[in-house]
Amino acid sequence: MRFRSRNYINSWGRFFWFAAFIVSTFVLFNGFSYSNFRFLFGARFEPVLKFARKTPTANAIVSGEHPVTQILSVRETVLLPDQVILFLKYPRSARLFTKEELECVYLSVHNPSPVPWLKQSPARVDTEQLSEQIVRCPSGPRGLLITVGSKLNGVFPAGPTHHWDSLAYEALVDNDNTTVVFVKGLNLRLERVFNASRFECVYGEDFSRLKLVLRSEVLSIAQEIVRCRTPLIVLNSKKKVNSSVKVSVRIKGGGTLPSIARLGFLSDSGRDPLPTRKPHETCICTMARNQARFLKEWVMYHALIGVQRWYIYDNNSDDDTDQVIESLFNAGYNISRHIWPWVKTQEGGFSHCALRAKGSCEWIGFIDVDEFLHLPSGLFLHDVISNLTSITTSFGNISIGEIRVSCYSFGPSGLKRIPKQGVTVGYTCRLVVPERHKSIVKPEALNSTLINIVHHFHLRDDFRFIDVDRRMMVVNHYKYQVWEVLKQKFYRRVATYVADWKDEQNVGSKDRAPGLGTRAVEPVDWSSRFCEVTDTGLKDRVLQNFANPKNSLLPWQTTSNKKARPWFVEEKNTSKVQEKEYRLL
To answer: Transmembrane segments in this chain: where (predicted)?
Structure first.
């Protein structure tokens, strides 16, 4: 009997330890598998949303006292200086809410009640993809949790909240299969390459558990751009991780930047980055905020001198910019709007644009909407570029990767209201000496760090830049327009390393309007300032070549939905397909 009792005890002991081993193994395996094995072996890989606090709204959608079926989730929330950006994710079959149906909801962090402390209408709602939206809400009082709701469905659960001053916010896989990560918070110096060995890139769902993320080498780091070696498992699972895997940057021995940067892949990623023939000879990229009333003239004019493709990075516009771009696209212009809500990131936006344009554009210019390329010779832009690069290379036996064009700064020219015929005709008085330059670059010539200071990029060692003779090409920069337009520059400057005009910092910068100080107060003599020489070169050419001879209207003054072309042209058939060769007068 004693022997049987001892065996009974030993059996239960062995069973206990066996059961404990099975349970611990299951827990370990289960925790590891969701962040690694499911990713590695191609199973569905989804982000885990963590709520800032546990309240009834964080676990169910609240409509009065009764929860309703979840229609959307707030994937991420970013607190910008003067507004809040919320990224919404819908089920694939769900109907997306309109701006009128959504509300910005502000909940008390300390009060567990689901009753909203405040509700406001969103400033804007943009559809990014078929099942995703970007909602811009006004900043609320401190200490409030911000989410969205609808009048019919109640309040939706809040998503994880991030502060803008420390964040990885965008990520693209380049043609060479490296990952380019765009970050805020490293505070690196302008135009300096930093020691990459002090950092590493991390890929995964939850960066608070470093044992469960993939790590990779940082190849270069400069300003706010980090280039990483992409893990092979990420490249091989491209289709599965496109909207799931996030990327961030970790300081070795320190912390990891919070991240909302989900991997994006270029359409030609992994292919030859230098195709024999690209679709477009000349393209233009810009970053703009509330430039709807000037965008039509800017696009149409540059189309008439030979630009074929436009990339518009919309930096939190709340005017009709999206509608103007849509109308231009419908009229036949190859133009796209890229939502770029990130404040003071013009350098990063231009680098992002250069990556996107690499497979499509032989040359791409980076200019603002108040800047117009003027070709005094009457040639088209691609002809000027071809002449510049062929002449230089025949003598120097080097490759030209960047063309730098001098900028003439125009003043109000005696006007007090926005000119009806457009800026190219209305403003005719400027400063004598050029201010700075802008660049037209060959995307594959850019240094891998993608360093730029808005006006030009750093190039690879086997490429050089050239300065263009102002008799061949200049930029007419309508910098100091009528006060109604000029005062908008006091809102915020878009460049990272440029102080806002309202700040006392760097008051003497060339970016500012001399003599204005830090307050948007119109000087009595504003309309006559910055006028040292009369220059009607571009005005004359625009009126001669682009005005309708019947009514003298310019293309951007009409409501036509057809693509504009010069009124005076020479036409000839060059192949079986009817083609036209235009020559400006």
So the answer is: 12-32
Torsion, Cα 445 451 457 463, to 10 degrees, reads -30
DSSP state of 81: S
Q: Which domains does the chain have, with CATH numbers?
A: 73-163 (2.60.40), 167-265 (2.60.40), 280-482+492-500+530-545 (3.90.550)
DSSP H helices, 50-123, are 56-59
Helices (H), 33-176: 38-40, 56-59
Q: What is the pLDDT at residue 514?
A: 65
Say what the pLDDT of residue 3 is. 40
Which of the residues in the chain have pLDDT under 70? Answer: 1-70, 111-114, 239-243, 267-275, 391-397, 490-515, 517-518, 520, 567-585
Query: Please, which residues have CB within 8 angstroms of residue 158's CB and are 6 or more apart in sequence?
Result: 51, 52, 57, 58, 74, 77, 107, 145, 146, 147
333's CB contacts (< 8 A; 6+ apart) are 299, 300, 303, 310, 563
User: What Å distances lie between residue 537 and 373, 430, 540, CA to CA?
Assistant: 12, 12, 5
- Report the SS3 class of residue 118: strand
DSSP state of 30: H
The answer to whether 103 and 110 have CB atoms below 8 angstroms apart is no
Amino acid at 553: L
What is the gyration radius of the CA atoms in the chain, in angstroms? 28
Q: Which residues contact 374 (CB under 8 A, 6 or more apart)?
A: 473, 474, 475, 476, 537, 538, 541
State how far the Cα of 553 lies from the Cα of 561, in Å rounded to an integer: 15
What are the backbone angles phi and psi of residue 19, rounded to the nearest 5°? -65, -40
What's the rounded Cα separation, in Å, for the pair 459 and 450? 8
What are the structure tokens assigned to 507, written together? 């008051």
End-to-end CA distance of the chain: 116
Token readout for 34 is 């969701």
With beta carbons less than 8 A apart as the criterion, state whether 183 and 169 touch: yes
DSSP sequence for 35-53: IIIHHHTT----PPP--SS
Q: What angle do CA 458, 463, 468 make, to 5 degrees?
A: 80
Beta-strand relationship, 144-150 and 61-63:
unpaired
Residue 93 burial (10 A CB sphere; 0-12, 13-18, 19+): exposed
Residues 160, 258: Cα–Cα separation, whole Å: 10
3-state class of 240 per DSSP? helix
The answer to whether 294 and 423 are in contact (CB under 8 A) is: yes
**Exposure on the CB side of residue 523, measured as CA atoms within 13 A:** 15
pLDDT at 95: 87
Tell me the three state secondary structure of residue 278: coil
| pLDDT in the model for residue 579 | 31
Rounded distance, CA 229 to CA 306, Å? 38
pLDDT tens-digit readout, 493-544: 555 555 454 555 555 555 556 667 667 678 889 999 999 999 999 999 999 9
Q: What pairs with residue 339 in β-bridges? A: 314
| Under 8 Å between Cβ of 522 and 483 | yes
Amino acid sitting at position 430: R
Rounded to a whole number, what is the largest CA-CA distance in the chain? 118
Backbone angles phi, psi at 290, to 5 degrees: 55, 50
Which two tokens mark 475? 């930029």
